[in-house]
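Q: Sequence in, structure out?
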Amino acid sequence: MTETGKIREIKDNLIIIAPDRSAACFGCMNEECRKGTGFITAENPGALALETGQIVEVAASGTSLLAQALPVLLPPVLSFIAGYFLLRFLVPHAGEGAFAGAGVLFLFITAFIVYRIRRKKPPGKSFTVTKIVA
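A: Exactly. Output:
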């Protein structure tokens, strides 16, 4: 996921960037912008010579996105499997629809729990400055 924006402030290795509003951001659906500050925080691991007012491109690495996606996607899938086989173990003469229904119920309950946890404790975004645009 990449974003472009203008550097607003530089604090040591932490860069505060005002995102370009004309660019479409479907990756986070402008979640950073709706928090009230409207700024993206990024790091400068490449030690680029940055100045306030420059337009830069920031990106989140694929491993960072994967580390954020797995804790969200894996528990509901595992809970579906657990619900399916738990009902099969507890009520073996029930039909296939009941087993699938139990799995779907477990899936939605776990997805709601994961959603509530993520709303209270969102993951840290790890944007890095990749290049200076202008």
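Strands lie at 2-11, 14-19, 40-43, 55-60, 127-132.
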